[in-house]
TrEMBL record:
The keyword Transmembrane helix does not apply. One of its GO terms (biological process) is polysaccharide biosynthetic process. Keywords: Pyridoxal phosphate. Gene3D superfamilies: Aspartate Aminotransferase, domain 1, Type I PLP-dependent aspartate aminotransferase-like (Major domain). This is dTDP-4-amino-4,6-dideoxy-D-glucose transaminase. The keyword Transmembrane does not apply. PANTHER family: PROTEIN RV3402C (PTHR30244:SF9), TRANSAMINASE (PTHR30244). It comes from Planococcus massiliensis. The active site is at residue 188. Belongs to the DegT/DnrJ/EryC1 family.
Length: 383
């Protein structure tokens, strides 16, 4: 059997500028004397990201969760919001903090995104919006979701934490829906250490967001909205400017890693890569596989544990299902029998090591390891 890796291999490693570039940026901020509240770095990063993402109405935040929370608030939503159980806790917690009730909709077994064909049956008089997630960089069925929203006059919000820079049929991903949230957490492709943004369609909503993230303060004399403190500071924005310079190269490295994983894993029965290139440009955020226990011979949990013995730290992601959180269990839509595809996916997904600095050779070794683990354990169980 292959030797374990000498040093642990994790699923990601933050994209960082070199220490000298970071230090120069910090000096520049220090000399300016302004370290937060819409300073020079904040303005520059906003402009650069509006251009990069082709998102003309962009507002920066200190993290993606608060961006989403205030985005929902800015749209003035009420009652119920149809969403997916297969997501990171932040998606549904942003609903909780707005006093909105999630209505969980099952997912598509291929993309693992909300199943658009199941949304309509969940709409009631109390429904005000659809909150969908572009999971692992696979875009949702934006056409169908848009049609349903138009028919029932619902708002559409996309949690786009995984789709930085993604395009669908040549259109930037934030073209779809009323707003799209991006996360700039250290684990995301583009990061500002912690941070996030909202891209919105309406200029009025943008103005409202810029007030909401700064306590609703309009001017020194007037506070016009009940907001929060969710501003991105100058150090976050300045580091973001440096990281943005590295994003294109990171994407092309990840493209190579993805192709190599796909090539190697195609030989292993029972392993299916989830993240597929849809449309023109992927976000290259995660590389996630699904382990079919029947076909592979062993469960996802088994593979996760075995790889750990060889110093390869994969992650069960997303896990657990949001509909299984204690405070949602009494909801009709959260019942496991109503969410069969999501219940299956949550037991099968495994996020693999995936970041530009990961050598191509390591991908070969990891795939070889999976193959050997499968074969030798199968031989053992036959004895
Ligand atoms: C990372 C992530 C978030 C949260 O973003 P933060 O910037 O960490 O607050 C929300 N939704 C999804 C799907 C994520 O992956």
């Amino acid at each position: 059997m292959a030797n374990p890796f000498e040093k642990p291999i994790y699923i990601t490693s933050p994209l960082l500028p070199n220490a000298e570039d970071a230090a120069n940026k910090i000096s520049e901020i220090w000399e300016s004397g302004q370290i937060t509240n819409n300073g020079k770095q904040h303005k520059e990063l906003t402009e650069q990201l509006e251009a990069y993402l082709q998102a003309p109405h962009l507002s920066l935040f200190n993290n993606g969760t608060l961006a989403l929370l205030l985005g929902l608030k800015a749209l003035g939503l009420t009652g119920e919001v149809i969403t997916t159980p297969f997501t990171f806790p932040a998606t549904v917690q942003a609903l909780d903090w707005n006093g909105l009730t999630p209505v969980f909709c099952d997912i598509d077994p291929i993309t693992l995104n909300i199943d658009a064909s199941k949304i309509e049956a969940l709409i009631t008089e109390r429904t005000s919006a659809i909150l969908a997630v572009h999971v692992f960089g696979n875009p949702c069925d934006v056409e169908q979701i848009g049609k349903i929203a138009e028919k029932y006059k619902l708002k559409v919000i996309y949690d786009g934490a995984h789709v930085f820079g993604a395009k669908l049929n040549g259109r930037p991903i934030s073209d779809f829906g009323d707003m799209t949230m991006f996360s700039f957490h250290a684990t995301k492709l583009f990061n500002t250490i912690e941070g996030g943004a909202l891209s919105v369609k309406s200029e009025d909503v943008l103005k409202k967001l810029n007030l909401l993230k700064n306590f609703g303060i309009l001017n020194p004399e007037e506070v016009v909205l009940s907001g929060l403190n969710a501003k991105m500071n100058e150090v976050q924005a300045g580091i973001g400017i440096e990281v943005l310079k590295l994003v294109e190269e990171e994407r092309s490295k990840r493209h190579q890693l993805m192709k190599l994983y796909e090539h190697n894993l195609a030989e292993i029965p029972g392993i299916r890569p989830i993240t597929v290139l849809e449309g023109e440009e992927s976000s290259y955020q995660y590389f996630v596989i699904e382990v079919d226990e029947q076909e592979f011979g062993f469960s996802r949990d088994w593979l996760h544990r075995e790889l750990e013995k060889y110093n390869v730290y994969t992650r069960k992601y997303f896990y657990p299902l949001c509909s299984d959180f204690e405070w949602y269990r009494q909801l009709e839509s959260a019942k496991p029998e109503n969410l069969p595809k999501a219940q299956k996916a949550v037991k099968e997904v495994l996020s693999m090591p995936y970041y530009g600095k990961l050598p191509l050779e390591a991908v070969n070794q990891i795939c070889q390891l999976i193959k050997e683990l499968q074969q030798s354990s199968k031989a053992l169980t036959r004895i």
